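User: Hi! Is it possible to get a structure for several chains at once, not just one? Here's what I have:
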Amino acid sequence: MRESIQTDSTTKYTQLTKGRDGDRSRLALRGGFGTAIGAMQPEDFMREAIRLASAGVQGGRGGPFGCVVVRRGEVVGRGANCVTSTNDPTAHAEVVAIREACTRLGTFQLSDCELYASCEPCPMCLAAIYWARIPTVYYGNDRRDAAAHGFDDDFIYRQIPLAPGQRAIAMKPLLQDEARESLDLWTAKADKVRY
Amino acid sequence: MRESIQTDSTTKYTQLTKGRDGDRSRLALRGGFGTAIGAMQPEDFMREAIRLASAGVQGGRGGPFGCVVVRRGEVVGRGANCVTSTNDPTAHAEVVAIREACTRLGTFQLSDCELYASCEPCPMCLAAIYWARIPTVYYGNDRRDAAAHGFDDDFIYRQIPLAPGQRAIAMKPLLQDEARESLDLWTAKADKVRY
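Assistant: Yes, the chains can be modeled jointly so their relative placement is included. Here is the combined structure:
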């Protein structure tokens, strides 16, 4: 079991996310679940993410964003934005693809995977990528392209680093002393599973 | 239908998140789904979030974090961290509670709701709160309390504002010109549902 993220050291994060065979870029034909067609290149996976994005728009599922998660040359998770069609504001392409990959692989850490997103991830998806311990992300459009088409993730990017009291959202501390009970229970728990 | 987040203006965000009756703090006994027991106060909802956090630890479901989403004095969504028990790195308490509230209310925007989290939200959950258009957040523990118990969300908080090339995650642009196709489809789509 890997440790929780507990440091700002790039070295430590890299250690946390090391794949089992240390070779995440190897792309090869594989059997089993996922999709592997010949020796696929990063461009092939990105084109699949773009295809999912465009198909999502055409099918009315949500915003123009697609994503695939790849493990050792196999697609193990796919996602397209389906916020509006599923009434789920967290159903961004990356989150959908990460959830699918984790379900398939039976794990909550994708440290031996790469993620291909048709657009630079928003802060929610970027943080999800950190929590999933994905070490490598390829992205097509960047946040400026997205902003030019009506998606200003950059607003949220600028809000995140602000102190809680300075944000557009009202954020109010409440019952801090009582809340510590839950953290103390965690610290005292002998058989906890860290993440 | 509300517009996408398209500005860094606090005023605009506040406009986007205005509730239907402009009074989000009114707490009253209500029927229907959700839970309303007398005239509940913010402290009552926070205690429910803390209860969910502690129960999640005791039940081995995941980390020590709980959350409730409240609409006009009713609990409309509950969540406890269940990352490790469901193999879902995005299953933080806030995400679980937001998804439940949206499913119950049949919407992808919770602009007339408040969120109570037993701990200051991590960047993923904070961004999810922005996407859900929740205007008010109460939190118990803060990120320093969490760090003292092994959860350093602050590492991710410090990563988010960095340029993509400076992060602990390798982030590589790829096929930007091809990816723009999806965004152009979105812009040209006449019947799109914005979020």
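The first helix of chain A runs from residue 10 to 16. Residues 103 and 134 of chain A are 15 Å apart (CA to CA).

User: Great, thank you!
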